[in-house]
Design a protein that fits this description.
This is Response regulator. This protein is of the alpha/beta class and 126 residues long. The protein contains five helices and five strands; from the N terminus they run E-H-E-H-E-H-E-H-E-H. Helix 3 links the parallel strand 3 and strand 4. The chain is globular, with a radius of gyration of 13 Å.
Amino acid sequence: MAHVLIVDDSPTDIHAMRSALEEEGHQVSVSDSASDSLDVARETQPDVILMDVVFQGMSGFQGTRKLARDPATAHIPIVIISGKDQETDRIWGLRQGASEYLVKPVHAAQLNRVVAGLLGTPASGA
């Protein structure tokens, strides 16, 4: 299947997303900060990036903008997955280069539908 990079600093959220994605057969890598995700994405070239927003230092919005503008990673779709559920946050995330914006907690079926849609493949309906 696909390689998905999860960028999050919550072990609970990482575990839930990793479990859902691995059930669909995806390979998963993890980065615990937006700033580190820039190098990880360049090196591993994932098929999709799942980006949290709230981090110490560089925010997920800033990380998304940098990834979307970097020629080495601009082709990788980014899904912001955040606890910030205001419409202004969603609009801002999409303006930074995200393809999708989901609000935590994200259910496995919803996550897999969005990833499958970005990959152009059907989700199994987890």
